Amino acid sequence: MANVTSEQMKLKYRSALDLMSTLKVQLKNLHVQGDKMVLRAVAKTKEDANKVWDQIKRVDKNFSRDLMAEISFLSDKPAPKPQTAPTLRIHKVVAGDTLSRIAKKYYGKAGDYMKIFEANKDKLKDPDKIFPGQELIIP
Q: Can you list the domains of the chain with their CATH numbers?
């Protein structure tokens, strides 16, 4: 690419630069030298560095013609997976239900009925007294 400008190169590799921002990859240096863009960055994990490389290759599998990149990383360990909130399940009590039967249905063990009782203490005073129409949280 003759007479390439920094803005042209940033535009070409915008998706990779945006991904770096999203992943919080620290950009150390970005400039044009000759007809190549030079990029130096530090990722938190090897996994993040690889994601950036994958994006660069999606933009142009022959990226080495116009891009020199060095993306180091601080850790080989993958980033911890974000913890998701447990799925909230609700069971509407029908005639004939008992906490033991409900526990058997959801947990496979009738003896786990106290889990349901503990999660619903605001509605239940006695584990042996539930009524049709009640909506119980199943933890």
A: 6-75 (3.30.460.10), 89-138 (3.10.350.10)
